[in-house]
Design a protein that fits this description.
Blueprint: E1 3-7, E2 12-16, E3 47-50, E4 72-73, E5 78-83, H1 97-115, E6 122-129, E7 141-147, H2 152-167, H3 173-184, E8 188-191, E9 195-198, E10 209-213, H4 225-246, E11 252-257, E12 271-276, H5 289-294, H6 303-312
The structure holds zinc ion (2 copies).
Length: 321
């Protein structure tokens, strides 16, 4: 049975879900995500359904915070698959802005449903794209994990934001970062009415990018319609730039980070992170001993240079394979 185990040294939960070993590789002759497969409706624009191999599920035992060297608890939550498009071969960079708008609407709807469920602490919407990221299904899709605890990276960002607010009269750390990035300018890729897109100052991944709403927005539920459309446009632009950068679909992780559901005071500012794994046209970035074992990232490209490369990367001049 799926459960969570406490890692006493790193002070974080590890989700043990042995059923995931039985996940199928992509079937060679048919795609379960295609309309008419029997698995999904005969027609859809975007579609969400429960993951067949969930790390967190409604049927698991409830999560009860506990301590101790060998602490163990239930992994009650939910894992969904989000299908972006009925078209099997369409890379996400080729989705229309309207299509992304529907995906974002779906993220927000699911967040609203989970907000009514006291078992859920945080809703994580993300996409693993490309074989280099370990994707078993090439049909364009993302996922939503509803987690019963706040994952360590978000916990750490919350602690940083609380510390900053404490020493800066309540100022939001993220709002300040965005405003300083705009002032410095050299890492900005796009600055629209509602969103800015930039390479973070201390980017850890090659061509790492963040999209931030200009307004202090905590969760997907706080976006107005204009902002949802603005985010759709920003995502569309950066995905096209990524695939034009080397002329093929960029292997990456796209991660929507939002505030915890049950902590209205928690200092957080929604943003979308893109963590690509391609460090040049021919080389992948591997998370090796220093990154994985010690948690320190080695970056091969200056963020300012990568921002310039992405500003110049134009889809019209490069065919996407
Ligand atoms: Zn398909
Ligand atoms: Zn803010």
């Amino acid at each position: 049975m799926n459960h969570l185990r406490w890692h006493a040294l790193l002070q974080q939960w590890v989700a043990v879900s042995t059923g995931r070993q039985d996940r199928p590789q992509m079937p060679a002759d048919w795609c379960p995500f295609d309309p008419g497969s029997g698995k999904v409706p005969d027609a859809y624009d975007v579609y969400i359904y429960p993951n067949d191999f969930p790390a967190f599920s409604p049927a698991a035992d409830p999560f009860v915070p506990t301590t101790g060297l060998f602490a163990k608890t239930g992994s009650r939550g939910a894992c969904d698959v989000v299908l972006y498009s009925p078209e099997h071969t369409l890379p996400p960079s080729q989705l229309t802005v309207e299509n992304w708008r529907k995906v974002i609407g779906l993220w927000a709807d699911r967040t609203r449903e989970h907000a009514a469920n006291p078992d859920i602490a945080l809703v994580a919407a993300f996409e693993n794209c490309g074989e280099a990221v370990g994707v078993t299904m090439p049909h364009p899709h993302g996922q939503i994990y509803a987690m019963p605890f706040i994952p360590p990276n978000v916990e750490r960002e919350l602690a940083s934001a609380a510390q900053h607010a404490g020493s800066h009269g309540g100022e939001c750390l993220h709002c300040r970062l965005v405003s300083d990035e705009l002032k410095q300018g050299e890492r900005i890729i796009a600055a629209g009415e509602h969103f800015i897109t930039f390479v973070p100052y201390a980017a850890r991944f090659p061509a790492e990018v963040a999209i931030y709403p200009r307004r202090h927005v905590r969760t997907l539920l706080d976006f107005n319609d204009d902002e949802k459309s603005g985010l759709a446009e920003s995502i569309s632009i950066i995905r096209k730039k990524y695939d034009a950068l080397y002329g093929f679909v960029m292997p990456l992780m796209m991660i929507v980070k939002q505030a915890p559901l049950r902590q209205p005071q928690a200092p957080y500012h929604l943003h979308v992170e893109f963590l690509p794994l391609q460090r040049s046209a021919t080389k992948l970035k591997y998370l090796a001993s220093i990154e994985t074992g010690y948690g320190t990232f080695l970056a091969d490209t200056a963020p300012e240079q990568m921002a310039e490369n992405l500003r110049r990367s134009e889809p019209a001049t490069a065919a996407v394979k």
